[in-house]
Amino acid sequence: MPRKVVFIADADSWSGEGLIARFSQGGMDLILNSRQDDGEWEKVLASCKTSGSKVLVTHADLCSSRDLSAMLDEAENGLGPVDVMIHNCCAIRPASVESCEEPDFVEIMQRNAKSAFFCTQAFGKRMAERRSGNFIFAGSIHSEKPTGSSFAYSASQGAVKMLAHEAALFLGRFGIRVNTIEMGPVEGADLVFHSHLSGLYDDYRYKVPAAKLGTVNDLAELAFFLAGEQSGYLNGADIRLDGGFLLHYMDHRMNKPSEGETRL
After folding, report:
1. What φ, ψ does residue 181 adopt, rounded to 5°?
2. Other CB atoms closer than 10 Å to residue 157's CB: what's the count?
3. pLDDT per residue over 105-151, tens digit each?
4. Domain contains 247
5. In which family does this protein belong, per the annotation (predicted)?
């Protein structure tokens, strides 16, 4: 794959570490947007340098067009135009439909959905001028499946999914691809989405047909594929990366270990 400049919108998130490692190993230069102090990135920067990647750590407000424009000017001067924009903002907070407070709802929608909209506008304009670029939205199966515990999160992911569809339709005319990864259950999802309403995450690892949960590396590998030329005809796609989790429908048929059996 030709050397590219990749922007990771939330380098601090659970998916950030895996994305950074995979794209750095793949010979990409990186722009890491972070809320952390620059000193927190010393080890990561050293590792990326060993892999031959140039890295710029930024602290842009993703809901500010002015901040994003200034950041992109800085990035283009230092590394060159951004080829791949990865939006991986997935802030989660327990909030039911009946009890969610307005500040919580607004914060989740801003961090996940509003940031996606502003990034799409800012990066899309510049990519359209070059008639080249790639958007990857790292989202969740909960863009279509309720959690029963974090409705604001689900609503934000649904908004991002439709934003990606609209962007694929418009930006595709300029040779820009826009695709979405709908990530399924990972370790700890049962705690994050604990619900008194839904049993979706009860024994959730065994609702995956292979009884194996996804990892950040699975997400990173798929994102790397979507960023490459091998996926050149993919545009407007929603790729469900859940091991078949949402296909489950009969709890008594779950692929649980038999009594006394252990499974790695």
Report:
1. -105, 125
2. 28
3. 999 999 999 999 999 999 999 999 999 999 999 999 999 999 999 99
4. yes
5. Belongs to the short-chain dehydrogenases/reductases (SDR) family.
Strand partners, 185: none
Burial 133-151 (b: 16+ CB within 10 A, else e): bbbbbbbbbbbebbbbbbb
Q: Considering Cα of 51, then 55, then 61, then 65, what sign does the dihedral take?
A: negative
- Residues 183-199 as b/e (b if ≥16 CB within 10 A, e otherwise) read bbbbeebeebbebeeee
Give a yes or no: residue 263 inside a domain: no
Domain with residue 10: its CATH number is 3.40.50.720
Kind of pairing, strands 29-33 and 176-183?
unpaired
Q: How far apart are CA 159 and CA 81, in angstroms?
A: 27
> Is residue 261 in a domain?
no
Strand partners, 186: 214
Tokens 């569809």 belong to residue: 165
Q: Is the dihedral of CA 55, 137, 164, 34 positive or negative?
A: negative
With H, G, I as helix, E, B as strand and everything else as coil, classify residue 165.
helix
| Residue type for position 116 | A
Q: In terms of residue numbers, what domain contains 180?
A: 5-253
Residue 260 lies in a domain: no
Q: Which residue has the tokens 């279509």?
A: 144
Q: How many domains does the chain have?
A: 1
Dmax (CA) of the chain: 62
| Residue 69: burial class (beta carbons within 10 Å; 0-12, 13-18, 19+) | middle
**Measured distance between the N- and C-terminal CA atoms of the chain, rounded to whole angstroms:** 34
The closest alpha carbon to 30, from 67, 56, 50, belongs to 56
Half-sphere exposure of 61 (CA within 13 A, CB side): 6
- Distance, in Å, from the CA atom of 105 to the CA atom of 83, rounded to the nearest integer, reads 32
* pLDDT, tens digit, 9 for 90 and up, residues 212-224: 999 999 999 999 9
